[in-house]
């Protein structure tokens, strides 16, 4: 007799489904009724709110973290021969942004426990052409920013923090994204603060912030809000060949209320994280590392690594089994060297970054969202335990 899945198809638990409440819906409707759908007062309000939350000097809203990274690299005035060091265990956007900025990505392996960029490996990869570092705060756990900033300071390197997972991350009380020249954040639909699509750049000085703002909207000297405000029409000057990277008020309408609940949502994810840790402690699974002393983990991804030898189930079969039980999951990430494009483009061979590649072949992410109910979390736990125990070697 075939056993029924834990969740039937009509109750499939989507990985990364956001927690959207009535406040966001009402704010979006208000924007639609106002007639102001593009970049306007709500974007400005969201920038100010985010700037206060991150204790930053400048915040510029854009349409994705990818755009934020691209603009930050361009504002760093890299030349075609310049090298930028980053991690091989990241979403492709991190490296793509470096390529689009005209520089050369150089990969350095990760720490096998934290899966963050290893400062020792970074030091080994620095050459006379290195101009910048792009550390990624993987899953919301902070990188070793003190060591990375020390390395960068000795070589006068620009640091651009990829904080796509790290809105709430703190390092000895200091927000992630405040160490480098730029901090780049994501508000994609699976992130801890959601605007559907969207991103933010934190900048340390007026010049860099002004450059980001100009490049984000066609290279124009004034944005649409100022041109069409009640103060009257203002002519603009095109001062650079910019991009269409601006955020809209419809997106910011979501972000304003998502950000207002950011701490409460983090507390909810922390509670689910603790339940997962307790439920999986004795399974042949490596649990995600918590934060270091004095640091705060944003709890963006709960990543499990399958123990080789003890768990007789390949990662992809485990993913398929979760799906069959009605539980969505993800892979964050396959190492970039698993993709032929990057091996060819960067001139690196498979096996060059063993820690990133080993993690990328064994890792999977299970649902972790403030929108999960206690019953949802119980279903995830039951599914993971059922699959793991069925494939454990005794």
Brief rundown of the structure:
The protein is an alpha/beta fold and 394 residues long. The protein has helices at residues 22-34, 41-53, 65-75, 92-100, 119-125, 145-155, 206-216, 224-227, 249-260, 262-280, 315-324, 340-346, 354-362, 374-390; strands spanning 58-62, 83-86, 104-107, 130-134, 158-162, 170-171, 174-175, 182-186, 199-203, 285-286, 295-296, 302-306, 363-366. 39% of the residues lie in helices and 13% in strands.
How would you characterize the overall build of this protein?
- The protein has helices at about 20-35, 40-55, 65-75, 90-100, 120-125, 145-155, 205-215, 225, 250-260, 260-280, 315-325, 340-345, 355-360, 375-390; strands at about 60, 85, 105, 130-135, 160, 170, 175, 180-185, 200-205, 285, 295, 300-305, 365.
- With about 400 residues, it is an alpha/beta fold.
- It folds into 2 domains: about 20-260, Type I PLP-dependent aspartate aminotransferase-like (Major domain) (Aspartate Aminotransferase, domain 2), CATH 3.40.640.10; about 265-390, Aspartate Aminotransferase, domain 1, CATH 3.90.1150.10.
CATH architecture of the largest domain: 3-Layer(aba) Sandwich
Beta-strand percent range: 5-15%
Number of strands: 13
What characterizes the major β-sheet? Answer: 7 strands, mixed
Mean pLDDT, nearest integer?
95
CATH topology of the largest domain: Aspartate Aminotransferase, domain 2
Q: How many helix segments?
A: 14
CATH uppermost class of the largest domain: Alpha Beta
Estimate the global geometry from the Cα principal axes.
globular
Broad structural category: alpha/beta
- Rg from alpha-carbon coordinates: 22 Å
Provide the low-confidence segments as ranges.
Answer: none
């Amino acid at each position: 007799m075939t056993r029924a899945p834990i969740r039937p198809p009509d109750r499939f638990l989507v990985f990364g489904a956001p927690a959207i409440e009535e406040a966001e819906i009402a704010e979006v409707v208000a924007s639609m009724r106002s007639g102001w759908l593009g970049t306007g007062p709500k974007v400005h309000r969201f920038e100010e709110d985010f700037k206060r939350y991150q204790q930053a000097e400048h915040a510029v809203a854009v349409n994705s973290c990818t755009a934020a990274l691209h603009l930050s690299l361009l504002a760093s005035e890299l030349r075609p021969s310049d090298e930028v060091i980053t991690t091989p265990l990241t979403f492709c956007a991190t490296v793509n942004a470096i390529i689009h900025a005209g520089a050369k990505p150089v990969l350095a392996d990760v720490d096998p426990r934290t899966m963050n960029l290893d400062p020792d490996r970074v030091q080994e990869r620095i050459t006379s052409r290195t101009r910048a570092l792009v550390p990624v705060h993987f899953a919301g756990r902070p990188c070793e920013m003190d060591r990375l900033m020390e390395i960068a300071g000795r070589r006068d390197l620009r640091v651009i923090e990829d904080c796509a997972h790290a809105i709430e991350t703190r390092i000895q009380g200091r927000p992630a994204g405040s160490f480098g020249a730029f901090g780049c954040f994501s508000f994609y639909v699976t992130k801890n603060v959601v605007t559907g699509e969207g991103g933010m750049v934190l900048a340390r000085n007026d010049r860099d912030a002004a450059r980001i703002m100009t490049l984000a909207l066609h290279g124009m000297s004034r944005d649409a809000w100022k041109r069409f405000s009640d103060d009257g029409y203002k002519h603009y000057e095109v001062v650079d060949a910019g991009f269409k990277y601006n955020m809209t008020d419809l997106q910011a309408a979501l972000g304003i209320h998502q950000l207002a609940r950011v701490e409460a949502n983090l507390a909810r994810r922390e509670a689910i994280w603790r339940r997962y840790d307790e439920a999986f402690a004795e399974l042949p699974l490596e649990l995600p590392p918590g934060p270091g002393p004095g640091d705060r983990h944003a709890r963006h991804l709960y990543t499990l690594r399958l123990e080789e030898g003890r768990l007789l189930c390949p990662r992809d079969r485990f993913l398929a089994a979760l799906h069959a039980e009605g539980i969505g999951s993800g892979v964050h990430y396959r190492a970039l060297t698993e993709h032929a494009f990057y091996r060819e483009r960067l001139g690196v061979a498979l096996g060059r970054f063993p820690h990133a590649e080993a993690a990328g072949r064994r890792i999977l992410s299970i649902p972790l969202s403030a929108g999960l109910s206690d019953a949802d979390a119980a279903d995830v736990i039951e599914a993971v335990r059922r699959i793991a125990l069925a494939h454990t070697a005794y």
